[in-house]
Amino acid sequence: MRIKFLSFIASFFMVSFVITSCLDDDNNIEYSPDATIHAFALDTIGYGITYKFTIDQINGLIYNEDSLPVHADTIIDRILIKTLTTASGVVTMLNKEGSDSIININDSIDLTKYINAPDKNDYLKLKVWTQDLQSNKEYRLSVRVHYLDPDTLNWGNGRDEKPVAFKKGFSQGEITGKQKAVILNENILVYSILNSELIAYKTAVSDGKTWEKVDNIQGLPTITSLDLSSIIEYNGNLYMVANNQIYWSRDGVEWALHKLLNRNNLKFATLLTAIQPDPENANNRKAGISAIASMDNGTTYNFCMTNENTNLWNTGEELPSDFPTRNISSTVGFSATNVPFIVSMGTIIARDDNDNDDEEEEEEKEETPQPIVPWSSYDGLSWIDLSTSSSYCPMLNSPSIIAYNEVFYAFGDDFKAFYTSPSGITWKEADKKFYFPEDLTKRGGANYSIVIDNNLFIWIICSKDGTGSDEVWRGRLNKLGFDKK
Q1: Residue 313: per-residue pLDDT
Q2: How confident is the model over 341-350, as a mean pLDDT?
Q3: What percent of the chain has pLDDT over 90?
Q4: pTM confidence score
């Protein structure tokens, strides 16, 4: 509609816009042809947070790059437009009657209808008028709001959370015992031993529903010499301890003795983890494989770390008596200056103080697991225990530790709760939003393994047990999946 000049004068007093005009030599008024929005901002959103809005002049779009938090509709249902800067000061929108009405930024506005407007093609349309009110430019406003709570661990299906693969299981029930999952070349491989044979199933990390059996695994020594828990991925290859030596594979099927890593004649107990090379940060990262090995045929064991450039082993401290020896789980975290460090946890087995020499009584005595104490190392050679008299990690059976969302999380095979720590020293139970699905908790006590893919999905893979089939669960913290634009 055509707006009379009187309306423009009225709007000058109603809104705090700057009007730019000048006079020519004949004292004639020259009106600016500018009909663009120069700046746009809403009032603060909860706790005084300001969200920046982008103005796309070419396409006439206004939107916030960082989405507002979930449930922001209860905030923007009555909110002020804090900044709306134009050359003329005249901006209109359609009123309830369908006519152009001048916006008064001193009045609150309801923007809930325009949340995530591109999804429903329902924008708030604004018109910016030139000073002579003869032409205008239209803008479309959208307020981006997260659909999901950013701090909740999402297992995929809301209240109806189900495993990714559960109807037939990922292995059709073949994998019932201990197993180890690892990611290689965008595939998840799960290894286990069945009837004195090493078996494996794999799926693409982009899938998880369709699994295929890996046939004809070759090149490894006797099954009884394999240490499934030692399987790790490093720099695009898999490594495993078998017969106290290191074997490797490019594809997870064809394995071979790694001659270079075994040339020191070390007797390997296990591989802990690996610090991956970083081409973009070579000077600030010590890459290599972390292991426990013996130089004297098993009398004493030491920490070892490979040299990234030569595949030679550097030997470090002797293994302390209270370093975990069972169910070891390791991960790599990063310091505030982006320096990687290893954190390991597991269980140690202590004998009863009243042990005697009676062989029958000795056989009847149960192994007593001790509390969880994480250990940490920056170079894989010197380690310190992260024990504390308070805020410690409680006893966990078959513990797993992961570095996730810039902190550490630990849990056990009961799948009841996550425990979290910023550095591995002080621990507390994680927020209730970081949780296990009820159906996974029901699988407590099952053999399982865990991997985290490049898209930050947490995969928990359970062997078949008496309560159900083998299952695959996949979850991710919502905010780690939000688009970063």
Answers
A1: 93
A2: 83
A3: 59
A4: 0.75
Task: Say if CB 290 and CB 381 are below 8 A apart.
Answer: no
Q: Which tens digit of pLDDT belongs to each residue from 180-200?
A: 999 999 999 999 999 889 999
Q: Cα angle vertex 244, ends 243, 247, to 5°?
A: 75
Contact 450, 461 (CB under 8 A): yes
Distance, C-alpha 30 to centroid of its chain? 58
Question: Strand pairing partners for 447?
Answer: none
Question: Whole-angstrom Cα distance, residue 136 to residue 432?
Answer: 52
Tokens, residue 409:
């999380």
Q: Which tokens go with 335?
A: 């310091």
Residues 6+ apart with CB under 8 A from 441: 414, 415, 416
